[in-house]
Description:
Layout: H1 2-41, E1 50-56, E2 59-69, E3 75-85, E4 88-97, E5 111-114, E6 120-125, E7 136-140, H2 142-145, E8 154-160, E9 164-170, H3 172-183
Antiparallel strand pairs: 1-2, 2-3, 3-4, 4-7, 5-6, 5-8, 6-7, 8-9
Amino acid sequence: MAQSKIKNSNSTILIWCGMRQWLSRLLLLGAIVLLIGWGSVTPPSAVASIRQIEEAPGQMLYQSRHTLQDETGQSWQIVLFKRVKAGKPKDISLRLVGFPGMAEFAHPQPLKITTNTGKVLEAEDLFADQSPAANVGEYNIREVLSQLPTATGVKLSLPMKSDRTTTLRIPSVVILEWQTVAIE
């Protein structure tokens, strides 16, 4: 009778160990599947969006495009671009496009760029004479681009009609991308 109890006890232990081992493998498999699935859902942490386009023989266009939100949650398309003709770069321009009817730039007004230390830089309004649309602003940032900090972001103060200003925060990774476009 004692041997029968020991035999039953040993088989119970063996069954329990087998189940535990099976559950451990199942848990590991589930974790692997979850990690693989999560990796395909989350975007990469840093994606460069620099475009290089040949507009004409001997003329290249370099662009950095991003969509960012202002302090009210409105989306803006931010395009930094540089044209290179016959190996010589022209101005480096920053085009800001807001949603039609929601944004109306005040021309001619400079773009104000504020660093985290409080330094204010200004970029010339390239649409001072005529803008293609009220919701589009374009500024020459060639002179100020090298002064922008790469460790922290900056704040753009967009001059809008009705004496109001819209604020866009530009992250440091975008500034790094802009500076990459400038040196290409």
